[in-house]
Amino acid sequence: MTDIQIPFGWNAYQSCSAVSCSYSYIQEQGVSYWSDSNIIISLFFYVAVAGAYDMSLLSDEVQREAEVLVSIPSIQYNYYARFNPDSLYLSIGSIQVKSPGYVHVYFKGTNSLVNRKAGDYPKLKSLVLSKVENVNAIQYVNEDFSSYFGRRGPSVHLNYQLESNYKIQQFYNEVTIPRFWDAVGTYAMAIGFSYGYFGMQVNSDSERRILFSVWSPQETDDPSQVLQENTVLLVSKGKNTVINSFGNEGSGGQSYLVYPWVAGVAYKFKLEGKPSSNGYSIFSAYFNDPTKSEDYILIASWKRPKTQSYLNNLHSFLENFSPENGHISRKAYFNNQKAINYQSKEIKVLSASFSYDETANQKQRLDYDGGVDDINGYYLRNCGFFNKTSVQYGDQFIKNKL
Question: In terms of pTM, does the model score above 0.85?
Fold first, then answer.
């Protein structure tokens, strides 16, 4: 039997039960500077085998005597954990898990103790499951994995299979994010290709973008290191498009339009790509809001050096780029795909295959899904610690024409 420590720094999130809160800090060391009783700390782990599990809390600093309500609503579990500075380890009882799935554990500081000392609630380092018979029965984001990517959650992809991949010059796609599925950090990438990506983002509570980026042929995460001969060059841009360079996940040219797109609308995306002169290829992105106009507007057109290519490796994906919001589920539909080759002939899109990133591949997170709806199109879902369906890596989805 083994004790399993589930680190808060990799598996916890915070929310507020009041209009405003003084937020705590969740870092790799755990939860600290937690003094507001309106803050709710949520920790998640997956149990593959039903049974009884003993739980304890491990702290690395208890500043004062304090009481914390520990609850698991799905099994009506509530426990008032009383900390004192004499112990960093506190047993909080046993839970009975009836079926495999994610367990959501909530922690909320209380003010019920009389004459408590001023200060923060205990630092939360790990939730400990004691004497676990099968270590593979418990899955969570472990300390050998990136806390950043683990808390972001898994990214999921649709890889389009075309009747022919020869000299595809245009590709169309429609993206709908359903109402209430548009959390901050959402990026629904409508059209990805070998050299870039094009889609819609939720950047904050007040800002949303239509984003189009093209990678440089030079492999570096630092845009300042890109040689002039490898620089992606702007050809033209839309009236209100913002132009930048980007780094961290490769480097290249970035263009985006700040645009108040809304959930529930099927927005249209068009990408064009073809070889140009002097060893360049030109890639141009266009966007249409069907509630405003029938016309597409230009986001930007970029020249990529050392490239002679049409569009290939066409795909879509759904990701969360905000680690603080990895506990909120997202969903997007992708519909009415169309490909046009260099002779202006339409090429059929036959199907889409499902794939995911290393976060899911290493089973750090299991909250992902994908499939097809004959009315709304292909769909992807991720994050939120829901219990996934039976979808597997490489599954093929075929949309039946109605």
Answer: yes
